Amino acid sequence: MTGTGHILVVDDDETVRDVVRRYLEAGGFTVELAGNGDEALRRFAGREPDLVVLDVMMPGMSGLEVCRRMRERTAVPVVLLTALGEEEDRIAGLRLGADDYVTKPFSPRELALRVMSVLRRARLPARAPAPDVLTDGGLRLRLSAHQATLDGRPLSLTTREFDLLAFFLAQPGTAFSREELLEKVWGWNFGDQSTVTVHVRRLREKIEDDPARPTRIATVWGVGYRYEPVRP
């Protein structure tokens, strides 16, 4: 396992910080450490990392609040560390724009692989077929530039949201299960399928006229989701 990049690791447990640091450094990353939310934001402002590993449950400022404040400034990838069974924290983090999560107790090797996977997705253009520009009505995606607009207005999308929307636009009218979307969009053959549900909800909030009554990203009951092109 080898990688490159500057990683900010935020956790109030010194042992966890040290284990993660040593494992990531052995994989070729440079690592900066923070023991609480305030310190994390100071270090983040001083030098923006390529990725943040962020514990959710910390005294004082929670990891979710740290994630929210980081998201106000930049779309830097975030991997959350959550307690086993804390599904609400995971869902809340994904809604705030986190890119992935690992549950505690975790394997340092698994975390490092997740970090590499998230960085790889963030650094490459969305994996979708030509042409470079995908459009539907007022919705426009330029894949090489990783840019999205709706009726001429920029859309603020995380890497995973962008990849999912590009996949939908490239294959309109086809129904996909959540399991298929995990594998085909993000290359996962494992993972919590609620991740797909959360990202579909976030996309609907950004591209639908009425997210409660979506017309673009349709739910196919018993299957998953289907993208319906805007009718002329």
Q: What does the main sheet amount to?
A: 5 strands, parallel
Strand content: 15-25%
Q: What's the domain count?
A: 2
Multimerization state: single chain
Q: What is the residue-mean pLDDT, rounded to a whole number?
A: 87
Order of secondary-structure elements: EHEHEHEHEHEEEEHEHHEE
Key terms for this structure?
232 residues, Rossmann fold, transcription cis-regulatory region binding, four-stranded antiparallel β-sheet, alpha/beta, five-stranded parallel β-sheet, 8 helices, 12 strands, OmpR/PhoB-type_DNA-bd, Arc Repressor Mutant, subunit A, 2 domains
SSE layout:
Blueprint (H helix, E strand, L loop, with lengths): L5 E5 L3 H13 L3 E5 L2 H10 L4 E5 L7 H11 L4 E6 L3 H9 L4 E5 L3 H16 L9 E4 L2 E4 L4 E4 L2 E2 L4 H12 L4 E3 H9 L7 H14 L9 E4 L3 E4 L5
Parallel strand pairs: 1-2, 1-3, 3-4, 4-5
Antiparallel strand pairs: 6-7, 7-8, 8-9, 10-12, 11-12
Helix pairs in contact: 1-5, 2-3, 6-8, 7-8
Protein name: DNA-binding response regulator ResD
GO cellular component, one term: cytosol
Keywords: DNA-binding, Phosphoprotein, Transcription, Transcription regulation, Two-component regulatory system
